[in-house]
Here is the input.
Amino acid sequence: MNNQNIYNRKTIEDVICSEGIGIHSGKITKLRLLPADLNTGIVFIQKKFGMKSPIKVSPDSVVDTNYAITLSNDKWRISTVEHLLSFFYIFGITDIIVEADGNEIPIYDGSINPIINIFNEKKFYTYEEINNPIYILNPIWIFNEDKYIIVLPSDELKVSYTINYDNPVIKTQYAQFVLSKDIFIKEIAPARTFGFIKDIGYLHKNSLGLGGSLQNTLLISDDSYLNDPRFQDECVRHKILDFIGDISLLGRPIIGHFIVCKSGHSLNLGFIKKIKEIYSSIEIGNKIEFIKKASNTI
Ligand SMILES: [Zn+2]
Here is the structure.
């Protein structure tokens, strides 16, 4: 396949409307997704401010990583953006305006399937310009106690993810995928947000999880699932979905093998800031060096 088709910048051709409940706020938000000019990036706008107060997606616009990614500027904030961003990333949508009349992206059914359905049969507009990928040339890592992320050179985007919870239903789950669009649709997109019954009191006390229900969350007690899992390892698959949303904050495709253990939004954000720092000075030469290196190893 011609890489240029994969990495061309892309927007949507027509306005797409949608609405749903926010998992944390419990409030309904209406979204309008609008086509955007080349190099606009992914931009969130609040309906009442419009383009006067946009929030452009980048690691620097993140203000909170507690239970979700929250972006903000000095005027307003938008939460739980990671699932939508994960979808944009895998579908290669680089330029789009997301107008919201509330402060949280809808959770839908907890997975990305409804988002894929919303975009189904909608046309994308492909620009001629390429969104230059970051080709990981050397190992990079970050850790915090027993949590860590490592990225190694690879000729594809691959994620190997381990989670471990002190809960007999989940215990340890491990999954590994090479993230093509087809694999994403089949293996990752259906995996829902998950939560534990024992945490509900704490979450509600902190105004979190107010929109959570069995319709949008895989709920787990100390001895069973309260609704049927879609995969035997649905939780780790959902963590991969979240992880993709987080690395998408970089705004460029990344080619590398991520090995992730027990990470969450906060460590993910620290890691992409590190990648950004290392690779901000290596632009076009990056690909040439990578190809040279790859051909030496054949
Ligand atoms: Zn999630």
